[in-house]
Design a protein that fits this description.
heterodimer; A: mainly alpha
Chain lengths: 225, 50
C-alpha cells in the first residue's frame, strides 16, 4: 500500500530504484505523484467490509478516476486533476451506507439486481443517494466546492440545471468502468448518450472513443497489494 | 444537509478522516498558488510515501 513500493514496482519500469520523494518527483512528475499519494491516502482511511468485495470496489474506482480525467481532458474541461479525485471517491457513499445502515444497503442491492435503478432504490430505502452521502463526506473533509458539487450531481447529472459537465464526466466514466458487468450489445444500448453529448462528443464516436478509454491503464492496482 | 444523511453519519462509529497531506493535495488541484516546496516538505514527512 505504500507509494514508494509502487513507484519501484515493475509497472513504472524505472531503470533505477527510487529512494526519495525528490527522485520520484523528477522521474514521475508532480501530477502522477499527487495521484499516487491521494489514492493511497484515501484507501488507507476507508475500512474493509465483510459483505463487500473491497478490491473490486477500488479497481472500479481507479477506472472511474482514470476515465473521468481522460474525458475531462478530451472535452477541454478546466480541471482534469479534480475530476480524477472526484471519480476516485465518487462511490465512497456506498461504503458509508454499508457502515451506517447495512440492512438498507443489502436491500438496495436486491432491488438493483431485480432491475431497479440505484438512485431510485436508494431514495426509496433511505431518502437520499450515495452521491449525496459522498458529497457530505467531502464537505467534512473540507474539499473544494467544485469537487463536492460534481460528486453531488454525478448520480443523475441531467436532473440538475444548469447541467454540471464535471458531473457528466463522472457519470459517463462510471458507466464505462462498469463495462465488465455487461455484454457489449447491452452496454451500447444503455450508453448515456445525452451525458456524452453534453461533454461535446458525437454519438457516432462512442465505439471508437470507448475503445481508447478501455485501453487506459490506471497504474494504481499495486496500491492494493 | 438532509437530516437522514446526518442520522447515517451518527450511526457510523468512526467516520473516516482524510490525511492532511491528501487534503492539501486535493485543494492544490484547484489552487495553483500552493507552493511546490511546501508540498514536498509535507510529502517527505508523510508515512504514505515511505
Amino acid at each position: 500500500m505504500k507509494v514508494l513500493r509502487l513507484v519501484n514496482s515493475a509497472h513504472f519500469g524505472l531503470s533505477r530504484k527510487i529512494g526519495s520523494i525528490n527522485q520520484a518527483l523528477v522521474l514521475l512528475g508532480m501530477s502522477e505523484l499527487k495521484k499516487l499519494v491521494i489514492t493511497s491516502g484515501i484507501i488507507s482511511v476507508m475500512p474493509e467490509l465483510p459483505n463487500m468485495n473491497i478490491e473490486d470496489f477500488w479497481l472500479g474506482s481507479f477506472r472511474t478516476a482514470t476515465y473521468a480525467k481522460w474525458l475531462a481532458e478530451e472535452s477541454k474541461l478546466e480541471n482534469s486533476e479534480m475530476l480524477f479525485t472526484a471519480g476516485l471517491i465518487s462511490n465512497l457513499g456506498n461504503i458509508l451506507i454499508h457502515l451506517g445502515n447495512p440492512v438498507a444497503a443489502q436491500e438496495i442491492n436486491k432491488y438493483i439486481e431485480a432491475g431497479d435503478s440505484r438512485p431510485d432504490s436508494e431514495r426509496q430505502q433511505l431518502g437520499y443517494t450515495n452521491q449525496e452521502v459522498c458529497a457530505e463526506l467531502c464537505h467534512r473533509w473540507q474539499f473544494s466546492n467544485d469537487l463536492i458539487d460534481a460528486i453531488d450531481k454525478s448520480g443523475e447529472p441531467l436532473a440538475f440545471k444548469p447541467i454540471s459537465l464535471p458531473a457528466c464526466a463522472i457519470f459517463v466514466a462510471k458507466y464505462i468502468s462498469d463495462f465488465n458487468n455487461k455484454d457489449e450489445e447491452q452496454f451500447l444500448a444503455d450508453f448515456p448518450v445525452k451525458e456524452w453529448q453534453q461533454l461535446g462528443f458525437n454519438e457516432q464516436d462512442i465505439a471508437e472513443k470507448v475503445a481508447i478509454i478501455l485501453d487506459l491503464d490506471t497504474g494504481l492496482e499495486g496500491l492494493l497489494d | 444537509m438532509k437530516s437522514e444523511i446526518h442520522q447515517l453519519f451518527n450511526h457510523i462509529d468512526n467516520v473516516p478522516q482524510v490525511p492532511e497531506v491528501v487534503r492539501t493535495l486535493v485543494s492544490q488541484a484547484s489552487n495553483p498558488n500552493v507552493s511546490l516546496m511546501k508540498l514536498l516538505k509535507m510529502l517527505k514527512k508523510n508515512k504514505l510515501f515511505q
